[in-house]
């Protein structure tokens, strides 16, 4: 039996939040949704009686003014301090893909007809429109419907605190789609609550979206743990030349292209844990740093790659990527010598082997070699450069910030022969693996399985559990499964570390809870046909979460 009659209320909350544009980094939008959530809670009798238990807070160390909202209910069934955390993000990706009907992206009732008028839609999308079972709109699936379900649960338990032996905290956080300022700031707030209220965090339920694995897959998924993500980034420094003497050059574009060949969709770099396989890495950016047109070859080029992890620690990822870089460098040198030898033969001139040698550094090795040569003046100069860059251009992309720091270090190198530098270019999304080995993990696994069994007979959907949430999410900030030693590979190989980005392991380890994603379900997240399965998301999901919370805080 479904305990909660939540469909209409979750649908209303979702529709009203979708109607508030909250595109990541656009002024005012994310804060407007945070304010909507805050006002909703402030209208409830429980929070009028306990006003200090709801708060709207601004992100720290952020270049955009934006806010998140947190609310909590304290159970009255017993005296336990056990506390379950609910998380979900209120920002969305942009709406440029809607073209001339952009404003309808925020109007779920009118959007389906506008989509049919404006675009040539696939049979699947048309069938979903006709079925009447899907709500369309930017953020409907990713993931305002998930946040709406959590709001409903907080409302419900605020009326029935006697059902909880423990506490329930909800965070509706901004900035999940970019650099996770929302959840990073929220960790501080959770730690303040831990101190103030004595909370003992036992589990985290995220409500981020999921979708079918392939056409015809009718399952609705719940995911334990979360996939991890790193962004291995390569910068190649070449040797420039006029195109008229091309074999005098070492083209960094060629080297980066060969790195991409070694990295992109290389299934040897898939990570398998608990029988589940990650997607292989794929290129997200490849470019040289030349500005404008000249007939000189490029001086440097960069590339970066999405790298998912299930069981692989950051130090292993770094080592595997360095091997790819080394192989790429050797392949390019062999190729250049081979082509030069052929060219000499064609030109009937003597062939002498080209002077290039592979030089592949991690950021730590690159920085330390220069520091060993130039000492404290070098360390001070690079620190000052990074600090000034962050102060003068706080909105600078994290990847390009790192590139600028790498280029600054290169200026201190006397040996300008070609080199390849490898570092981590983006925020660290920790993998969270649920093995059931700890009491908290076992309790969450058991609670979710029991909740699914309870809901399944009335669900009208096939519900399955899997071991890794397959997309990047803020769940990664709730725990650390890697050892501190292996995590140091991140800290020591980020040019932006502690200047533009910092992953505070000590704080995260103070929370360190197992996670499950019981979230919105639909199709085409981040696309103009984004839509949410209403029965699953507005009815089944809040009920599964409700049963899970009851099991954990009984």
How would you briefly describe this protein structure?
The protein is an alpha/beta fold and 554 residues long.
Number of strands: 19
User: Mean pLDDT across all residues, rounded?
Assistant: 96
Q: Which secondary-structure class do the elements indicate?
A: alpha/beta
The backbone outline, from C-alpha atoms, is: globular
Question: Overview of this structure, please?
Answer:
This protein is α/β, with parallel strands linked by helices. It folds into two domains: 296 residues, 3-Layer(aba) Sandwich (Aminopeptidase), CATH 3.40.630.10; 195 residues, Alpha-Beta Plaits. 41% of the residues lie in helices and 17% in strands. It is built from 15 helices and 19 strands. The strands form four sheets. The chain has an eight-stranded mixed sheet, with helices on both faces. Helix 1 packs across helix 6 and helix 6 crosses helix 15.
Note the topology.
Elements: H1 7-18, H2 29-42, H3 45-49, E1 54-58, E2 67-74, E3 82-89, H4 111-118, H5 123-131, E4 134-136, H6 140-159, E5 167-173, H7 181-197, E6 200-206, E7 219-224, E8 228-230, E9 232-237, H8 252-263, E10 272-273, E11 276-277, E12 282-288, E13 300-309, H9 314-347, E14 360-362, H10 363-392, H11 398-410, E15 419-424, H12 439-455, E16 462-466, H13 484-491, H14 505-511, E17 515-517, E18 522-523, E19 531-533, H15 534-552
Parallel strand pairs: 3-5, 3-6, 6-17, 7-16, 14-15
Antiparallel strand pairs: 1-2, 2-5, 4-19, 7-17, 8-13, 9-13, 9-15, 10-11, 12-13, 18-19
């Amino acid at each position: 039996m479904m305990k909660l009659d939540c469909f209409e209320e979750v649908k209303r909350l979702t529709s009203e939040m979708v109607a508030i544009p909250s595109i990541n980094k656009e002024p005012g939008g994310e804060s407007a949704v945070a304010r909507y959530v805050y006002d909703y809670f402030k209208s409830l009798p429980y929070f009028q009686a306990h006003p200090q238990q709801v708060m709207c807070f601004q992100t720290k160390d952020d270049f955009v003014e934006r806010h998140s909202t947190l609310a909590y209910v304290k159970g009255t069934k017993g005296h336990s301090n056990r506390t379950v955390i609910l998380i979900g993000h209120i920002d969305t990706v942009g709406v440029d893909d809607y073209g001339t009907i952009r404003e309808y992206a925020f109007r779920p009732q009118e959007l389906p007809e506008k989509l049919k008028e404006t675009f040539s839609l696939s049979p699947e999308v048309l069938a979903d429109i006709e079925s009447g079972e899907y709500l369309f709109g930017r953020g409907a699936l990713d993931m305002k419907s998930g946040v709406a379900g959590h709001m409903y649960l907080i409302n419900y338990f605020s009326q029935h605190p006697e059902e909880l032996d423990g506490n329930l905290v909800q965070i509706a956080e901004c900035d999940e789609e970019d650099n996770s300022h929302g959840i990073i700031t929220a960790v501080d707030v959770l730690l303040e609550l831990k101190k103030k209220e004595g909370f003992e965090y036992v589990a985290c339920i995220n409500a981020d979206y999921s979708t079918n694995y392939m056409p015809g897959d009718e399952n609705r998924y719940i995911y334990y743990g979360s996939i991890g993500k790193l962004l291995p980034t390569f910068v190649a420094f070449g040797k420039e030349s006029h195109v008229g003497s091309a074999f005098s050059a070492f083209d960094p574009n060629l080297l980066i292209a060969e790195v991409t060949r070694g990295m992109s969709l290389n299934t040897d770099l898939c990570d398998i844990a608990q029988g589940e396989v990650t997607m292989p890495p794929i290129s997200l950016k490849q470019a040289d740093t030349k500005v404008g047109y000249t007939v000189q070859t490029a001086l440097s080029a960069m590339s970066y790659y999405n790298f998912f992890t299930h069981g692989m620690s950051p130090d292993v990822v770094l080592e595997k990527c360095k091997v790819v870089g080394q192989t790429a460098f050797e392949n390019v040198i062999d190729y250049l010598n081979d082509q030069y030898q052929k060219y000499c033969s064609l030109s009937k001139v003597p062939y002498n082997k080209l002077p290039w040698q592979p030089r592949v550094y991690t950021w730590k090795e690159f920085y330390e070699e220069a520091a060993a040569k130039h000492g404290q003046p070098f360390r001070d100069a690079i620190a000052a450069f990074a600090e000034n860059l962050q102060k003068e251009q706080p909105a600078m992309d994290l990847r390009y910030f790192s590139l600028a720091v790498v280029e600054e270090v290169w200026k201190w190198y006397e040996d300008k022969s070609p080199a390849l530098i490898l570092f981590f270019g983006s925020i660290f999304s920790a993998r969270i693996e649920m093995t059931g080995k700890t009491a908290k993990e076992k309790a969450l696994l058991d609670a979710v399985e029991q909740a699914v069994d309870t809901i399944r007979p009335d669900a009208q959907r096939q519900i399955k559990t899997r071991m890794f949430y397959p997309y990047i999410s803020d769940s990664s900030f709730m725990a650390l499964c890697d050892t501190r030693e292996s995590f140091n590979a991140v800290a020591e190989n980020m040019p932006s570390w502690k200047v533009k980005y910092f992953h505070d392991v000590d704080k995260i380890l103070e929370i360190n809870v197992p996670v499950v994603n019981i979230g919105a379900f639909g199709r085409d997240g981040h696309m103009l046909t984004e839509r949410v399965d209403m029965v699953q998301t507005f009815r089944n999901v809040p009920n599964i979460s409700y049963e899970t919370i009851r099991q954990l805080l009984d």
